[in-house]
Structure formats: structure tokens, C-alpha cells
Amino acid sequence: EIVLTQSPDTLSLSPGERATLSCRASPSISRSYLAWYQQKPGLAPRLLIYAISSRATGIPDRFSGSGSGTDFTLTISRLEPEDFAVYYCQRYDNSLWTFGQGTKVEIK
Amino acid sequence: QLQLQESGPGLVKPSETLSLTCTVSGGSISSGSYYWGWIRQPPGKGLEWIGSIYYRGDTYYNPSLQSRVTISVDTSKNQFSLKVTSVTAADTAVYYCVRSDRGHFDPFDIWGHGTTVTVSS
Fold it and tell me: Which residue of A has its CA nearest to B50?
């Protein structure tokens, strides 16, 4: 079974702080088929990061992705008010797409 | 700029078939660089990939839904469609149509606004 497990479920931080979101893959991801999305209430998700670490068009450089194999991280270097949202990781395997369950970043 | 727009009934009765269409504007669905797909999100829950299609008609489905789902494409209308049969309350969700970019490790780079489908008698 292909699974992505995100942690924590909720991250409570203040504006200006650093956010570190984790995504664990089972089985491991052998190529760079890992992406991250941001979703705000009532809106469609927005692509932030693709190929593990490449920022999508228009995404600020405070967002960065890293990792390999089974462990991947989305880092927001300094939280802006508009960054409080839910974040999903997603993998692609031989024409199958799978999402993690999401991490909510909320204002502390 | 390419845009996606979902359309279809917002209310479906249990045991009936849910049918949605996604209209692609600002670009051609026949580009070989993309898959076209559907994702849903039940109220208060996460994202679930339903399935995707290539413009030639090759289809790929979530194994958990495969027995009830059909995705088709109409290149003459620049549209693709979703059918889910034998729906129950568990199929109540916001349904998004999406594009995935085959040239950049297949992320979902463009999303429709989403359409809410409620299954209820």
C-alpha cells in the first residue's frame, strides 16, 4: 500500500516563526515525484513545490522543499499572515497519485 | 492562461450516478504534455485523487474507486468528464478538476474552483 503520513496534524506558530512540516513516504520514493500544496478555507489547493524542491511559478522563496527516499520536508522560513493554511504532500507512482492527510498551520 | 471549470448537478440521489464535466479554456486538452484529472474533498477532510485521463483516452483510476468511476475526454469540445455510479452519502464532496504536468514530475499545477456535490434523497 502506498501511503504518505504527514506530521504534525496541527502546527501552532506565530507570524515570523519558522515552520517545518514533515511527510513520510511508504514505500520510499525513488524519483522526484513529490509535491506540496497549500489550501486556504473555501479555496482550491495551490501547487507550492514540485519535484521535491522546485518552487512553482509565483511561489515566494520563503517556501522550500527538501528530502529523499522516505522523508520529506516543507519549510516556511518566516511565516507571513497569509501562510496560515492546510498543507498537503502528494506523490506520483506509475500513474497513481496519493495525498497525505494534511498539516494545518494555525496562528498561536 | 489556462483555466478549468467544473459543471454538473449539485444534488444527486443515493444509488444514482454522479456526472460532472470540466471545460478547459485558454489552452488545448490535446496537448501531449498533460494529464487531466479529478480530485475530491469530503467536508472537513483531505484530498482524494479519483482518476486521470490522457487526451488519447488512456485512463488511470484510484483502485479504491475504480469499480464505480469512469473518466472520458471529448477533444472536440475541449472537455473531460467524470461519472461515479451507485453513489452514497460518502461521495458527498467538493469535486475539483485538475491538470497534471507530465514534464515536471506530474504535480497538479492547475485546479478548477471546485463544485460541491451532495448525495441525498
Answer: A97
Task: Find all residues with CB under 8 Å of A104, minimum gap 6, and list them.
Answer: A9, A10, A11, A85, A86, A87
pLDDT in tens, A63-87: 999 999 999 999 999 999 999 999 9
Cβ-Cβ contacts under 8 Å, A29 against chain B = none
For A81, the 3-state DSSP assignment is helix
Write out pLDDT tens, residues B66-119.
999 999 999 999 999 999 999 999 999 999 999 999 888 889 999 999 999 999
* DSSP structure class, residue B115: E
- Contact at CB, A44 and B109, closer than 8 angstroms: no
